[in-house]
Design a protein that fits this description.
The structure is a single chain. The chain is built from nine helices and seven strands. It has 280 residues and is of the alpha+beta class. Strands 1-2-3-4-5-7-6 form a seven-stranded mixed sheet, with helices on one face. The radius of gyration is 20 Å and the shape is globular.
Length: 280
């Protein structure tokens, strides 16, 4: 049962209630696309020139691909600026969990008009899987100077604030009342806090990070200028801390942070009070 104001249970074309991604994926392709297209923010449609509720631009080119295999509890939505070889402007992956939750596995939003930074490959051009298989330091330096966070290849469209309410209403319409995720970096975790998420696992780590970046803390003392990613003063911003953590300033790699959002409930968590706001 939906609980958000003016929201209602999601039904298929025959009037049967839907309660999971796996249930949606049993439907025909056209019906699945119609349902999943409600996750595309209007401003994304405007940027790409998509027809209302459609996946094509006025030239008839399909810019949005929805992968929702029958029998599987997941969906992947990819929107490109141009067919096949364009910039991936919007990438979303959702899945059902065994506990009737919705997992927000990935959400990547890029501005196709912004410069590209090759931080997603190593210096030989091979995919580095979010820097876990090598780094591209020259490109990371360019990206950091341009105001990007670690692993960002482009500036964003500042679109998550428009997307997340759509996701929350979508989950609610399926009768799902918890959204879970695993932030891939420190800045991701802070960003999710802003949208009302709490921690299933990792809150003590986030509080420890904040404590150790204070004067006298371990990480504060390591901001010694030994690398461009460890300059004094970086402790004051989310971006600065995130780049230092990306550079290995912590005693162990960033890992195993899990978060959740109860639909309609803002947890009010803030593990970095007093931070300097950054213009992006």
């Amino acid at each position: 049962m939906a609980i958000l104001p003016s929201n209602s249970q999601l039904l298929d074309a025959a009037g049967r209630p839907l309660s999971s991604l796996k249930a949606i994926n049993r439907l025909g392709e056209a019906e699945k696309e119609l349902i999943y297209s409600r996750l595309l923010p209007q401003r994304l449609r405007d940027v790409l020139g998509l027809a209302e509720k459609g996946l094509f631009n006025p030239a008839g080119e399909q810019l949005v691909t929805i992968i929702a295999p029958e029998g599987l509890p997941l969906v992947r939505i990819e929107a490109r600026s141009k067919p096949k070889d364009g910039v991936t402007v919007f990438f979303l992956e959702l899945s059902d969990t065994q506990f009737h939750q919705m997992e927000l596995s990935f959400c990547i939003i890029r501005d196709p008009a912004s410069p590209q930074y090759a931080v997603d490959v190593d210096e030989t051009g091979r995919n580095n899987w979010f820097a876990s298989q090598g780094r591209n330091i020259p490109e990371e330096l360019r990206a950091m100077k341009a105001g990007l966070f670690p692993n960002q290849t482009h500036h964003g469209l500042q679109l998550f604030a428009e997307f997340f309410p759509l996701l929350e209403r979508f989950a609610d319409a399926l009768g799902i009342h918890m959204i879970v995720a695993e932030p891939l970096s420190y800045d991701n975790a802070i960003r999710y806090e802003k949208y009302g998420f709490d921690y299933l696992r990792g809150r003590l780590l986030m509080e420890e990070i904040n404590r150790e970046f204070q004067p006298g803390g371990r990480y504060f003392s390591r901001l010694d200028g030994s690398s461009p990613f460890r300059r004094p003063g970086m402790e004051r911003t989310v971006s600065g801390r995130s780049w230092a953590i990306h550079d290995g300033i912590m005693d162990k790699p960033w890992d195993e942070v899990q978060i959740y959002r109860i639909v309609g409930v803002h947890a009010g968590i803030n593990t970095f009070p007093g931070r300097e706001e950054e213009k992006r």
